[in-house]
Amino acid sequence: MSHPEERARAALVSVSRRLHSAGWVANHDGNASARLDDGRILATPTAVSKAEVSAESLVTLNDEGAVIAGTRKVFSEIALHRCAYRVREDVSAVLHAHPPYATAMAVAGVGLGAPFMAEPVVSLGREIPLIPHLLPGEDDGELAEALTRADAVLLGNHGVLTVGPDLETCLLRMELVEHLAKIFTLSLPHGGPRALDERLVDTLQSKHEQLFPKRLRDSARSHVEDDAPIAPLARAQDVVKDALSRFR
Ligand SMILES: [Zn+2]
């Protein structure tokens, strides 16, 4: 077994234990995966408490999502993880859990709204998108779109998904989302959080983009460009039409 694979296995076991001890999962909730350089994905097994995940219990998938090693089954939410790997070239790990404060907001359909603290904007960007409830097998377009601009997403009626270059970063991002949701909730009796000045958010967002650039895969980029304004294309068509009219 190669060293990077051993390290990934150890990180998956460690992050699973930490999800459990933080109280962010119950029963068999939560899952984690890591993508190796050769495209294989290592994932936590389904139907096992995160306190009991071992290096031997992990499941290996090929880059098409088929299980190629391991004696256990993979979790059904692997589709969410594969969506992240499909959209983002810079993502090598994905983490999903149900941390209570952030999940409470997600099940209530309440997002974190405009940034209300400065440091998290540098770490996570100006927006932590909240997407509608996604059933297994359903079109994951909204998640894919959210991941083109964010590393942490609130999943409606469900929980939190974070992505990153490694599992440690995913865990820290989840910790920050949960902390923000807790502060948001605790501020409500005092009138709720007050948004930061937009100009400050713009400056912090530029810093975030410098520190954590998101590399989209070509397929995701063309998806984003589909939604972009069509003016340049319209102009190109006008030029062609004009040229053709002069030929006739
Ligand atoms: Zn879940």
Describe this structure in a few short sentences.
By secondary structure, the chain is an alpha+beta fold. The chain is built from 9 helices and 8 strands.
Written description of the protein model:
The protein has 248 residues and is an alpha+beta fold. The protein contains nine helices and eight strands. Strands 4-3-2-1-5-8-7-6 form an eight-stranded mixed sheet, with helices on both faces. Helix 2 packs across helix 5 and helix 3 (100-108) crosses helix 6. The protein is globular, with a radius of gyration of 20 Å. It starts with a helix and ends with a helix. The model is unreliable at 228-244 (pLDDT under 50). The structure holds zinc ion (ZN).
Tell me the overall shape: globular
On the 0 to 100 scale, the average pLDDT is: 90
The top level CATH class name: Alpha Beta
Helix content: 40-55%
CATH architecture: 3-Layer(aba) Sandwich
What are the defining features of this structure?
8-stranded mixed beta sheet; 9 helices; globular; binds zinc ion; alpha+beta; L-fuculose-1-phosphate Aldolase; single chain; 248 residues
